[in-house]
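Long-time lurker. I teach an intro course on protein structure, and each term I like to show students one example going from raw sequence to a predicted 3D structure in token notation. This year I'd like something fresh instead of my usual example. Would anyone be willing to generate the tokens for the chain below so I can use it in lecture? Attribution to the forum is fine with me.
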Amino acid sequence: MKQIANSAPTIFDVARLAGVSRGTVDRVVYGRGRVSEETKERVRKAIEELGYSPNPNASSLASKKEYRFACLIPSYKEGDYWEEIYKGFIDAAESIQFASISLDIHFYNQTDVQSFRSECAEIIKRPPSGVIMNAVFRDAVIEFADQLRSLKVPYAFVDNKIDELDYLLYYGVDPYKSGALGAFLLTTRCQVKEILLVRLIRDSKHMADPNAPRRHGWTDYIKEHFPDCNIHTVFIHPDRPEETMETLERFFMDHPDVMHVAMTNSRVFLIDEFLERHPNPKRIVVGFDDLKRNLASLRKGNVEYLVTRHIPQQSFRILNKFAECVIKGISPSRRNYYVHMDILHRSNLDDY
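-- Reply from a regular --
Happy to contribute to a lecture. Here you go:
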């Protein structure tokens, strides 16, 4: 677990630096009552030095109360999708000015449901002001949500969600629609008779399936528009590149006419080595998310399209909005905040 605290200066910090009372700072800031010019100048200098931004609606600043939020996300390697989500949380925690908050970031192994449950138990031991998480292990997430509800701890989802739960907020793409968009891009050029869908082996018990809504959108589009299309599926392990190569070589040896390939997760780069070794100008590959390794595949022409969004904006925006709702006790105007979907091709990559 990592702990992050924002240090937004408060009216008390200004008063301490200027050597005056909180009430005097309030009078200077809002022009109330009589204050000597000398005192006004000290207060103004303190405000400038600290970068204090007065907010009359933020009663939390006056009370100097600190709000603690827990973020529960998968652990990651450098360059992975969840590293970008982590960066968004850090930037948001440092940018929030309307309250003093601290952030406990809990990491779990997304191939091990027990790892997820262990981190949930750690959070429950010391209930925070709110929790932001994603939904990899459906049953375990539902159990955790029930615990949070019994403790009256609000929670939100980032990247993916479980619709029937009573979450406060969601920030991310509409996963079903993003899957359909990927299927459209894959099949827009011609009648498609066969497609290869490459999926990841995530855990030995097959309990983790965070991309199910996107995959359902993808398959529903194919079935509706190409009812006679044969969808082949192969599974690869994210940490076994030699096995991935063997699996794909074996598949294309048996199905040499398949020219359309898709991955509905964020790791289309895992098949880049195969595409590099076995180039085919007729092959069309579609993936998701603008990770650096995916962008490299796109730039080389191994991948034709990426359906993406600015990944860190999801976590940045949800922490800001969630903290505001929880701290100020306001209800969001809507539960689901769907971010804009972008289509990347090597022809527009340099301008993204």
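Some talking points for your students: The first strand starts at residue 2 and ends at 5. The CA atoms of residues 69 and 103 lie 5 Å apart.
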